[in-house]
Amino acid sequence: MDKMLEAAGCGEIDWGGSGAEEETGVKKRTLSKNVHADLPHPLTGSVKGSLVKGDYLYYHYGCDGQDDRGWGCGYRTVETMASWLCLNLFAAKQPSRPPPPSIPEIQQALVSMGDKPDSFVGSREWIGTFEASLVLDHFYDVPCKLVHIRGGEAQLEHVAVEELHQHFEKHGSPVMMGGDRDNSSKGIVGVCTGDKGSYLLVVDPHYYGCQLEMSELQRRGWVAWKRVSSLDQSSFYNLCMPQTAKKGTKD
């Protein structure tokens, strides 16, 4: 929410980026795919880099016609993660798997599984990494690893960064990151480490407006490499990491 919210607009939703359409109310919108592609690397020299593997769609405020500014960032990050599951795990073997759930569907699922009271449906209450793990397991039977990072430079630069490197190398899916003082949900699709520190590749769900070209999203900073040291050092953070590797693979 540090950025000025863009003007609302219209568009057409093309779920999957290959002609499949999804309608929400009377509006159709187009979702951008793999919005981090071709983003220049932030470091030079000897660098360890790990990126998302496969396709995902960029879900953000208002992308389906529902104005969720100020509270919906967690839902949108979950939808981005769910899009990766649909496009990479189930597209060929289980095409009947549902597309990413809408905000009302997420809320109803959390009520149905007993995590939230009935009043949660239709509310503007946000969700975090724990709820994200419940939702992905509920809709896609994919468990998630939750990692708590106490905060501070050492924890963020070493524990969080190493967990992310391992995740992208083994599982390859987008990760949800959120905290307490820094309570804005972030989608993480990459990490890189060099002699002068580490960067996270952040897909920010807080953009609101008509579809933008990938290059414009990157230019405006909605998709960007962020120095780990720029995170709130006084905030704890949680990571939600879908466990998508086949059973029997080495941890």
From TrEMBL:
Gene Ontology molecular-function annotations: deUFMylase activity
Highest taxon in the source lineage: Eukaryota
Cross-referenced Pfam families: Peptidase_C78
Single GO biological process annotation from the record: proteolysis
Keywords: Hydrolase, Protease
UFSP1/2/DUB catalytic domain residues: 50-240
Classification via InterPro entries: UFSP1/2_DUB_cat
Keyword presence, Hydrolase: yes
Similarity annotation: Belongs to the peptidase C78 family.
Name of the protein described by the UniProt record: Putative inactive Ufm1-specific protease 1
Lineage start: Eukaryota, Metazoa, Chordata, Craniata, Vertebrata
